[in-house]
Design brief:
single chain; 0% helix; mainly beta; four-stranded antiparallel sheet; 116 residues
């Protein structure tokens, strides 16, 4: 059974930091490239199964993605946050997991709000 649980969001002032976590259940995690999405739509950071990161231009130099395959957990360290980073953040495989209805499976997400 696939389960993704995001945590770590919150309200932070511009220039602040947050660390998001993604806890995964299922055999897929350690063999899959994983990513963080905004609004279930925009892939902003991804990491290969072996740990090679890739970033969207909008977060490059500010965000750091990492993973611990032994713990089935992925992280997103977010520094120098901007109001435009405000969004619901989701983790998923690169190319989101399909569910039985024909759509994509998503966890509950975690809200990040950057505001003074």
């Amino acid at each position: 059974q696939v389960l993704l649980v995001e945590s770590g969001g919150g309200l932070v002032q511009p220039g602040g930091s947050l660390r998001l976590s993604c806890a995964a259940s299922g055999d897929f995690f350690s063999i899959s490239p994983m990513g963080w999405y905004r609004q279930k739509r925009d892939l902003i950071a991804s990491i290969s199964k072996d740990g090679t990161p890739n970033y969207a231009d909008s977060v490059k130099g500010r965000f750091t993605i990492s993973r611990d395959n032994a713990k089935n957990t992925m992280y997103l360290q977010m520094n120098s946050l901007k109001p435009e980073d405000t969004a619901e953040y989701y983790c998923n495989t690169v190319g989101p997991i399909a569910d039985v209805s024909g759509g994509n499976y998503w966890g509950q997400g975690t809200q990040v709000t950057v505001s003074s």
